[in-house]
Structure formats: structure tokens, C-alpha cells
Amino acid sequence: MRIAGKVIAGALSTVVFAGTAYGFSTLSALDDITRSDVIGGGGSVDEGQKHADGALDILMVGRDARKDPKGNPLPKSVLEELRAGANGDDLTDTLIVLRIPDGQKEVKAFSIPRDSYVSMPGGKGKINAAFGRGKAAEAAKLRSAGETDKDKIEQESMTAARKATRQAVEDLTGVTIDHYAEVNLLSFSEISKAVGGVEVCLKKATKDENSGADFPAGKQRLSGGAALAFVRQRDNLPGTDFGRMRRQQVFLASMAHQVLSAGTLADPGKLSDLIDAVKNSVVLDQSWDILDFVNKMRGVSGGGIQFTTVPVVNQDYRYDKSHPTATAVQVDPAQVKAFAAGLIGAAPSSSAPPAAPKAAVEISNAGGSSGLAARVADVLKGKGFAATAAGNAPSQRTSIVRYPAALAAEGAEVAKELGGLSTKESADVPAGHIQVVLGKVYSGPGVSDGGSAAGVPVKTDQPPPVTSDGDNCID
Hints:
Layout: H1 6-9, H2 11-22, H3 24-27, E1 34-36, E2 56-63, H4 76-81, E3 92-100, E4 107-111, E5 116-118, E6 125-126, H5 130-144, H6 150-173, E7 179-183, H7 185-194, E8 198-202, E9 206-208, E10 213-215, E11 218-222, H8 224-232, H9 241-260, H10 262-265, H11 268-281, E12 283-285, H12 290-297, E13 305-309, E14 314-317, E15 328-330, H13 333-344, E16 360-365, H14 372-381, E17 386-392, E18 400-403, H15 408-417, E19 422-425, E20 433-438, E21 466-467
Parallel strand pairs: 1-12, 2-7, 4-13, 5-15, 16-17, 16-20, 18-19
Antiparallel strand pairs: 2-3, 3-4, 5-6, 7-12, 8-11, 9-10, 13-21, 14-15, 18-20
Helix pairs in contact: 2-9, 2-11, 2-12, 5-6, 7-8, 7-11
């Protein structure tokens, strides 16, 4: 059974946002939260030093684990309430990267499908297997070195598992992870109850025996097992896993809105319960200084939170010819990196002098998406190119970057900035110019307003990002 941990993965961030309004003393109770040396070094990190804009990138991980952060089995009553079996595994079923800006701006978050097929140590596989691979490899290494202490093997192999997951995410997205937060079934149960339930809205009634979902149409408040059933449902939803992923984003956005509301912040009992739930069920990296983080976060909550998903090439990728029923989610690392850079990339420093234009880039639209050439031109202008939209070109499926021999390096740079497009040296391109033709399947920066991919397959009816202050009534 897969558990949608992303819904509670943001609970720490909402607690922190709440703390910025409620006060430092309230959050001091988080000092004894479970820690793991995921980032490395083990010491305090000078917040904001890893990014030019002072922002922080946090990896939120949801695990289908039947144990608490200290390794104790969850009570049978909790497992029964959440309709969870007795056996767990070492998969990470939820991965979210959360960008916390420096100042009063909107927080951006993106989800990575759990079945994304990626390269990692031990060979290609689904990204949610990185945790188990890292854990097994470290445990085997310790045993071969003569270690017999079971608790030590478990602790050190779990740290290796978290590091392997962090590395897999960094390799896929190109994002340097500053902090790590991990949650499990207990987290979901306790946090959703602590906030007094979360309001959701359904366009129509739905029922699913596998998840336990049985909800009427309209607005309703859910917590505990009912909330878990809401975010676990995949059957009878458009896009199955992707429909479930959007449900999870909507739930987390609603939770954030509720925690940031005046009513929740003004209720000491609810805030205390929420902090206790986080303290008892969340794992953080060892370098995360919560009080310093709260100081940095003051005022950030005013911008809201926006959730989206990385671009996908194929949701039904047949990666193993010997087992044709085995499928995964195919992702293009170049597209994902371009998406992440466009969505949460550091803003240019206002004190730095403007760079001289690198080359004249002419962008033509051969895909039919209105305004695409102009949006891509804006993306390249931000990278220092003298880019202009050259109008429409004859229809073609793929995109290409053409350039004269003297601009081979800059042509390759343009192709990289746009998500790894094909390139071609051509004597027909005028000296000093680079030509970009955007095809029907282009999915790099600029594919939607805001300069980032909105998700793949690219569709004109792609649902908008989920926001914490939006009207998020869904199927």
C-alpha cells in the first residue's frame, strides 16, 4: 500500500510559518526533534549562504513506514485507523522540493513522481527505490566490516538511505538541497488531527474500496484516516497516480492556508498540538537550526505557497522489455533541470552590473502555442542573450538550435538553457546570430507564463498550479 506522505511533508514548514507569527519561544519545543546527518558535516549551516538570492531548498520526503522516527512500531490502533497493513518497506512514495525565498515572496514547491525512472548507484530504477538501495548497501558494508550492533547498523544505514534519496533528487533536478524533512504514517495522522481537520472540495461524489475513500460532492473537513483516504485514492481518478498527486497538493495547500490563518495562530492549543505532532513524528537533518530558520522566515508567509509537478515525458514508460507489464514514469533530466531552474532559480543580484549581450537569438514558433516564442525570448534575455521573437515557422514536431560555426559554444549554451534541445551548425545562419525553432513537443522554460514548464505531456488544458489561497475544488 502506497501512502501519500507529501500531504504531511509540508507540515514542518507550516509549523515554522506559524512560529514566525506566534513567537520564538513556542518553537523552542522542537529542539528535541529526531535528527539525521543527511546533508553532511553535522554542524549548523549558515542559512542562505548556498544560494545567491538567500533562498533555501528543502527536500520533503514521505515514507510508507510503519515505525516512528525512533524506530518503534506504530500502534495497531493507528494502523487500523489508517487502513495500513502490518508490513512496510523502504520506498519513498513522496518527494517534494520546497523553495523558501528570502523576503516576502511566494513559496514555490514541486513534486517528483515516485516512479520517475532515473540513473542512480546500482543502475537505473524508480527514484523511490533510492532509499532502500542506499540502506541495503550501507548495511551490507557495515556487516562485511564486522559490525554486529543491530541498532548501530540500523541507524547508520538509515542515514545512508536518506543521503541516497537526497543525492538522487539533486542529480535529477540540479537543485542543491539545503535541508531535509521526513514524515510517515504517524505524522499524517497526528498533524491532520492537530489542525482540526483540513477543508477540501470535490466536484462530485467518489468512492474507492482500496483507499477507503467515500466522500460526497462539495466542501468537507477531513482528518486522520479520512484525510489519508482522500490523498491515497488513485482509482476512479483522472490520471490515477497523477490525479492522486494533485489531490495531495490541494490538501497540503489547504492545510497551509488553514495553519496560516488568524484563527489557527490565535489558538495556543492547536498550535501546541501541531508542534507536538511534528516533534514526535518528523525527522530533520542534523544541520537545521530551527530558531535561526524562523528568524529568516519572518514575513515569508505573506506570499502564499504554489505547488506544481516536474515535466514528464511518458507516464506509462515500458522500461523492461522482458517484463512488458512493468511501467515507470519517464523523465528527461535536461527538461527537469531546466524546469527547476526556471521555477525556483536564484534571482539575479540587483547590485551586479548587467552582462553584455552574448549573441542575437531569433526564436520562431513551429508548435502553434500562442505567445511561446515571446516567452522563451524573455527567458533567454534573463540569461544575457539579445533574444527576440521572430514569429511563426512551418509546423514541426521537434525543436532545434541552429548557429554559424563561430557561435558553436553559445549555440550549445542556448540549447542547454532551453532544456537540452538538439543543435545544428549551419552556414545558412547569418554571422552573429543564433536561430531557435520551437517544435510541438517543446517543454522547456517559457512553455507557460512564468518561464517554467507546467508539466508534461504539455497540453493547452494543463491544470494551473495549486496555490494556498486558490479555489482548489477538484475531481
